[in-house]
Amino acid sequence: MKVRIGYFDERSAFEVVKALKSVGIGAEIRKSITLSFVPAYFVEGRFSDLRNKYEETELVEDIKEWKRRLEMAAELGSLKEVGDRFDPETFEILRDMLETNGMLEGERIKDPPKDPFISFPVEADDDTAKKLDLKRKLVAFSNVEFEVFAELGHAIFNDRLGEICEEKGEFVGLLLMAGMAERLLEELSGGGKSVESLRRIRRFTFGDVVELRVTGDVVEGVLEALERMGLVRIKKGRVQLR
């Protein structure tokens, strides 16, 4: 049974795995593309049309500002310079406008057209968006993430796990799951119990301030891990210590 430690960037993921292996806990990294979906409202259109449409609103200054940013990007001359000049969110919006307006030649940025296409997100509730005639989009953000999993069996009775927990808070969950496994073994020390009775355990407390809440499936998963370790035997719905 593996316990998910968390999602990290590539460098951090390898550091986490290295820390786990330093105390004898096997770990693996799974690389994946993750997507998150966010509904958003946008101002979109040619600069001249937008300036006339929103002339009597506060948006007109934002529209002018995005046009100035396009012009500034052309003056900077390259995507690298633009990335250094603006924060990541502004850079992404600006890069999309550069592409839409045909201003990109590789990394080089050309002059903007006389009447550029402007597109940027606006925070607004539904009523305001309808009043301003904003365009609604479902924006999907994608990212490559590195998910780290640790072997629960290696963490049980591992006296050194506490050491790395003091350095990295990401390992506290693994420590709690190892503690839960040890508590289940204590439950069985007085004799065998049914899987169903153990599945009904919903919380494990550690000291006065930590409480781990679980489902029956989690309990059964940990029991299966203990069986693979040779610590318990599960037969006909009952669990016993070996």
Your description of this structure?
The structure is a single chain. This protein is 45% helix and 30% strand. It is an alpha+beta fold and 242 residues long. It folds into two domains: 105 residues, no CATH class; 72 residues, Winged helix-like DNA-binding domain superfamily/Winged helix DNA-binding domain (Arc Repressor Mutant, subunit A, Orthogonal Bundle), CATH 1.10.10.10. A hairpin with a 2-residue loop joins strand 3 and strand 4. The longest helix is centred in the first third of the chain and has 18 residues.
Features:
242 residues; four-stranded antiparallel β-sheet; three-stranded antiparallel β-sheet; 11 helices; 30% strand; elongated
